[in-house]
């Protein structure tokens, strides 16, 4: 199983299940009229699978590189999609024809040579340049029918292209300095080459497609053979590439190369130093001297590259400052022109003075007209207004006083009811207290008699005690019974 077929089987849900796979690999062109839903579902599944596989870098192509935005059709693609049991898919011409008709796949030649944006409604790909084979095989031109051989063609996957362009523009939007938006093609690939796939960089064909899309369709940059420049946030359209832009791109490449050289030489210095120490430990003086010479030479080269890097980076810093100054001056110039135009529109200081005088004159006329109208109208009796206002205020005060009196009486009545309830409660508690005191006194008297009788005659005391308790009458209460039970004294036998 090829890597492409394995990827489709693992990542595309529509290709899981033998029954569904059989439908996708069959000749379903006739379903366009008999079963439109099934036809559209199959075409949609194939377009998604091919787009995802292209983004993963699995579409076969001559050479070592793999396109992530462009799909090349032909025998290699059909062979890579050949299923062990179902064979090659016979539906690919139909899939590509449908995708082109819906502007989801764009013929590469038409995309590269079109002078207008692909987003314009009037843009239509040329069917006779590349798609004649696909349209004829799909039945769009001539009689329906299929060929066993998939013709060669190149198609731009618009969804992958738009994803890459969106991510790149989002990254560029956070770049603060104007000169950082200028770069060579090599630096562009280094910074944005893996925008679609972290493990695979876009090819040279993808780069050409992407630059044309960003320049023509998005109007986000301008570029030449060697230099790329993104527009600034304040620009409506990207400015053309100048010689200064090319020089800045070359300088950035030189700084990057010097930094790479410094890194490599630093590693050589570290390796030579380690070898010197190892030779000294092993007492190999000849090798130690040779390694020491190499370290000295590497250190000298490192110092030279460091000095050059400092000079280039200092120059680049000045370029950043100068570019920002140019932007500030241009903004001030534009603001001054706008201010001058606005002052011209208002007629300068003299024009404003005339307008203010005219306004004042009209205001004076308006006041005069208002005074005349007020004189002709019926005057208002101020004394009558004051009397009516006083009557309304007195009525409001009386209403408020009545409400306060009613609330006061209500509160007094409530307080009286609460006081009466408290008094009743106090009388009840006092009565209970007196009853309790009386019972306690009777009990105490009986106890004293019992003590006296016990001292004289124990047997007689028991009989008298029983008779005394039988004649006593107590009112049962929970607390009084508990207290009497606690105060009882056991008698001697």
From TrEMBL:
Residues 248-275 form a coiled coil. Residues 463-473 have a biased composition (Polar residues). Residues 394-417, 424-449 have a biased composition (Basic and acidic residues). One of its GO terms (biological process) is late endosome to vacuole transport via multivesicular body sorting pathway. It holds the Pfam family WHD_CHMP7_1st. InterPro entries: Snf7_fam. Gene3D superfamilies: 6.10.140.1230. GO terms for cellular component: cytoplasmic side of plasma membrane; ESCRT III complex; multivesicular body. Residues 394-493 are annotated as: Disordered. Keywords: Coiled coil. PANTHER family: CHARGED MULTIVESICULAR BODY PROTEIN (PTHR22761), SORTING PROTEIN SNF7 FAMILY PROTEIN, PUTATIVE (AFU_ORTHOLOGUE AFUA_2G16692)-RELATED (PTHR22761:SF18). This is Snf7-domain-containing protein. It comes from Lophiostoma macrostomum CBS 122681.
């Amino acid at each position: 199983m090829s890597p492409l077929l394995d990827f489709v089987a693992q990542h595309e849900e529509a290709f899981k299940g033998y029954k569904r796979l059989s439908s996708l690999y069959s000749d379903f062109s006739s379903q366009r009229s008999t079963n439109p839903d099934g036809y559209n579902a199959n075409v949609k599944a194939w377009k998604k699978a091919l787009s995802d596989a292209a983004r993963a870098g699995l579409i076969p192509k001559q050479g070592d590189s793999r396109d992530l935005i462009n799909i090349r059709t032909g025998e290699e693609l059909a062979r890579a999609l050949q299923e062990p049991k179902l064979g090659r898919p016979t539906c690919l011409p139909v899939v590509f024809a449908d995708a082109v008709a819906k502007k989801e796949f764009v013929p590469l030649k038409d995309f590269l040579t079109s002078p207008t944006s692909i987003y314009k409604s009037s843009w239509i790909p040329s069917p006779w340049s590349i798609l004649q084979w696909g349209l004829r095989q799909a039945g769009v031109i001539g009689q329906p029918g299929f060929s066993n051989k998939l013709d060669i063609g190149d198609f731009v996957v618009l969804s992958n292209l738009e994803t890459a362009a969106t991510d790149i523009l989002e990254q560029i939007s956070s770049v603060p300095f104007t000169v950082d938006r200028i770069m060579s093609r090599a630096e562009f690939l280094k910074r944005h080459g893996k925008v679609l796939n972290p493990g695979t960089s876009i090819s040279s064909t993808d780069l050409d497609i992407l630059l044309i899309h960003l320049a023509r369709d998005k109007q986000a940059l301008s570029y030449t053979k060697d230099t790329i420049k993104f527009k600034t946030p304040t620009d409506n359209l990207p400015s053309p590439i100048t010689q200064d832009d090319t020089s800045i791109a070359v300088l950035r490449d030189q700084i990057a190369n010097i930094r790479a050289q410094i890194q490599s030489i630093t590693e050589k210095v570290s390796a030579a130093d380690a070898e010197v120490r190892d030779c000294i430990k092993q007492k190999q003086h000849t090798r130690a001297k040779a390694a020491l010479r190499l370290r000295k030479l590497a250190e000298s080269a490192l110092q030279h590259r460091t000095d050059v890097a400092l000079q280039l980076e200092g120059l680049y810093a000045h370029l950043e400052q100068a570019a920002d100054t140019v932007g500030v001056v241009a903004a001030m110039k534009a603001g001054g022109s706008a201010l001058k135009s606005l002052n011209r529109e208002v007629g300068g200081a003299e024009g404003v003075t005339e307008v203010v005088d005219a306004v004042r004159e009209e205001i004076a006329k308006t006041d005069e007209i208002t005074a005349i109208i007020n004189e002709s109208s019926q005057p208002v009796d101020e004394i009558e207004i004051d009397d009516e206002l006083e009557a309304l205020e007195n009525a409001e005060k009386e209403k408020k006083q009545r409400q306060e009196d009613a609330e006061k009486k209500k509160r007094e009545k409530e307080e009286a009811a609460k006081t009466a309830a408290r008094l009743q409660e106090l009388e009840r508690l006092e009565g209970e207290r007196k009853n309790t005191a009386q019972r306690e006194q009777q009990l105490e008297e009986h106890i004293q008699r019992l003590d006296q009788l016990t001292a004289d005659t124990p047997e007689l005391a028991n009989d008298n005690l029983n008779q005394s308790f039988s004649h006593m009458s107590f009112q049962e209460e929970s607390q009084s019974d508990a207290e009497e039970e606690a105060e009882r004294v056991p008698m001697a036998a």
